[in-house]
What we know:
The protein is α/β, with parallel strands linked by helices. The strands form two sheets. The protein has a seven-stranded mixed sheet with strand order 1-3-2-6-7-8-9, sandwiched between helices. The protein has a two-stranded antiparallel ribbon with strand order 4-5. The protein is built from five helices and nine strands; from the N terminus they run ββαβββαβαββαβα. The chain has one domain: Rossmann fold (3-Layer(aba) Sandwich), CATH 3.40.50. The model has no long low-confidence stretch (mean pLDDT 94). The protein is 32% helix and 20% strand.
Amino acid sequence: xxxxxxxxxxxxxxxxxxxxxxxxxxxxxxxxxxxxxxxxxxxxxxxxxxxxxxxxxxxxxxxxxxxxxxxxxxxxxxxxxxxxxxxxxxxxxxxxxxxxxxxxxxxxxxxxxxxxxxxxxxxxxxxxxxxxxxxxxxxxxxxxxxxxxxxxxxxxxxxxxxxxxxxxxxxxxxxxxxxxxxxxxxxxxxxxxxxxxxxxxxxxxxxxxxxxxxxxxxx
Length: 219
């Protein structure tokens, strides 16, 4: 299964040496993520930012998009659906790494996958199971699918950011996800936001930018 995903691209100010792919949440689209890359770009002048739209109309909001079904919403559904659909995202990533607008070929170790909510779930699942290593993964307000240890092919550093007042993806799922990542030998950093619901705040954006810089050794 392959899709030509509609994408929003923010070109680097200098020669491309790294790539951030940012995945939006359930029922949204790529435009929702553009303020994030606008926040990050100034400190990452050699990084190409790509924000794709998910390929499927959202089952609960037809004006938005989804990466895969979340009906019913539980870790079993997330795991089954992410496994079923990860192939098209792996192909998208492979193409993005080899087709930078300025002709640069970016190694997968210089790729950061990031996402919010369902996009964060997909970023975690795909990034940990890709055949090639990635530089890091950021998950905002998300959860880790039920990956078995033998399914994890990469162990990049991971940043998880979550609001303690999240009533969409409960906060305890971040704690659970972080524990499982650490059990599998994955360096995992968490940031809890005490008064935040299902959203990303300024502190979360700053933490994400600093994490990217550390992973790319640009800070």
